[in-house]
Amino acid sequence: MFTDVTVANKSYTKLVLSEKSEMDTIAIQVIRQDCPDFLLHMRTMEIDGELELRYELSGGLRLSYLQHSMYKKDFLELLIHMLLPFKNCSDWFLDYHNFVLDENYIMSDKAGQSIKYIYIPSMDYAMTDEEIKKFFINFILKIDIKDDSGYMVNLIRMLNQPEYTLLLLLEYLQQESKSQVTVPQPQRPQPEPKRSFSENLGLVAEPSNILESVKKRMPSPSVEKEKVEAAPSYASTEFGKSNEEGRLMSSLFGEEEVPSKAKEGKKKKEKPEKPQKTGKGGGFFGLFKGKEEKKARVDNFVQGIVPEREEKGREEREAAYNNSPSPSYPMSRDDDETVAMIQEAVSNESNDELHLRLEKCVGCKCPDFIEIDLRQGFATVGRRNKNGEPQADYNFESALSFISRRQFRVEKSGTAYRIVDLDSANGTSVNGQRLVPNTPYNLERNDTITIAFSRSIVEYRVC
Question: How far is it, in rounded angstroms, from Cα 317 to Cα 105?
Fold first, then answer.
């Protein structure tokens, strides 16, 4: 039905309508003058008496190129944005039966936050409610939810009920999206407010109560009297002076003297005695012993005498070196024999694997060889995110920020290969020609795939 064309490095799809097609003039005017954000821009062209509708495939990726493995939260957001146009189209005097429900012609941004449909303003291409429901059932079956695999079964059961509509499904998904538990962010500790001098003392802020709080903290006279009566007989009657007479009397007649805290604090800790060194030291109290030992080591080195402990350590190191395996070095990129062996192995295999050999790497560090598994029919190449999580089927390191998280896609086309740039930030080039996003190109052996930005360049050769 649609034919893809590339004009001025832009990807379009066109549809030629028959002369018998009855056009909706109101819908054409709405899309031309004030196109809704959930529709692709449309241009009408009359060529040789035939009316042609042309749509620009921009604003993201084809829905068929999105990754089908995602978390439940991301899936709910994607499906809600796919269903919202069916609810809002009536505000624009449009009929949702005229949406083109084909994954190759539904555009979505990389995060699934925006969906754009193709609208055909002719009742000849309208879809029934059963066909629309069947499309969503087939789409849901393709999705693999990582954290809740059984959630898809509940959605399919609801859609299979005859009375269940898309609007009811939209309301249910919106409630599910709100009920998703969000992880609370850690809160920074708040600094304590500064306290005044009176608050630090425990005093009340009101002047009338300051005197009462001070009185509460002061000890009562009865307590002070009890402390004086409980003091020893030799305690001084004058504050701050020691009773020498009482101390002498207690020492003569055997009464125990209560040591003060000051005396206890002045006691020095007993240090352990250092072991005495045996053997004859150097002259002048052993000050020249270090020089004598150094001179002895030099004489032993000149005479070839090796101490026993050093000889034993050297024997162990030599034994470990002799028993260690020979080091293995990485394969050189210019090794013609290695390349010939790889090409011979690839020719004997099926087209379920694609091999890429590194040709150029500037400003980064990349693997010499990449094996892309195509057993599921396609594979994506990209890089890991900042958290180290893989975002594609084959992932470069997250440090290679000039490579998009999903850079390009390789797919099988019979016995041949095709490559598609997934709307990457810096683009993908094949044999020096930059690819138009969302457009498949033929990929053959000995072709070069290049990703470049500023001084960083990565180039691989298909072998």
Answer: 68
How much is the average pLDDT of 149-159?
Answer: 88
SS3 346: helix
DSSP 359-403: EEEESS---SEEEEE-TTSEEEEEE--TT----SSEEE-TT-TTS
Question: Which of the two residues, 410 and 309, has the higher pLDDT score?
Answer: 410
**Which of 275-284, 297-306, 313-322, 426-435 is modeled with the greatest confidence?**
426-435
Q: Say how far apart CA 76 and CA 178 lie, in whole Å.
A: 10
CB hemisphere CA count around 114 (13 angstroms): 13
Residue 113: predicted pLDDT: 80
Cα–Cα distance for residue pair 344/324, rounded to 1 Å:
34
Question: Which among 59, 65, 52, 64 has a CA at the least distance from the CA of 1?
Answer: 52
Q: Which residues contact 411 (CB under 8 A, 6 or more apart)?
A: 374, 377, 378, 379, 417, 418, 419, 420, 440
Q: DSSP readout, 148-213?
A: -TTHHHHHHHHHTSTT--HHHHHHHHHHHHHTSPPPPPPPPPPPPPP--HHHHTT--SSHHHHHHH
Number of neighbouring beta carbons within 10 Å of residue 423:
21
Query: Tokens 């709307």, residue?
Result: 423
Alpha-carbon gap, residue 353 to 372, rounded angstroms: 6
Asked if 60 and 110 count as a contact pair (C-beta separation under 8 A), the reply is yes
